[in-house]
Structure formats: C-alpha cells, structure tokens
Amino acid sequence: MGNAIESMASDSQEIDQRLSQAYQQQLMMHLQQGETQAALGVIDQSRMLLSHIDALF
C-alpha cells in the first residue's frame, strides 16, 4: 500500500514539474518575442489551472 502511495506522489510531482516547465517555456517564448499580452495570458492560464486544482481539494 505504501509503495502505491509513494508511486502516486512521485507521478504527481513529475506531472507538476512537466506542467511548470511547459508554462515557463511558453512564457519565455512570448517574452522573447515581445508578446506581452500573450505572456500575461500564460500567467492567467496557470492561475486558472491552480484555482481549478485547489477547488478539487
């Protein structure tokens, strides 16, 4: 049972890291291209995602 929980926690951390990297890459791309509105959109998307996740718990 403990191994299953540890595995789920590890999977969750990996998913969190991948999402974080994806948002960071999008944000950096938009900032490098001078697309400030698009960069703000990425920030808003990440905030909305966090709100949805928080609402689940």
Total number of beta strands? 0
What about the largest sheet? none
The separation of the N and C termini measures 22 Å
Structural class estimated from helices and strands: mainly alpha
Q: What value does the Rg take, in angstroms?
A: 15 Å
Strand coverage percent? under 5%
Encode the helix/strand succession as letters. Answer: HH
The average pLDDT value, as a whole number, equals 85
Portion of residues within helices: over 70%
Shape: elongated
Total of helices? 2
Unreliable stretches, pLDDT < 50, 5 or more residues? Answer: none
Note the main attributes of this structure.
0% strand; mainly alpha; 57 residues; single chain; 2 helices; 91% helix
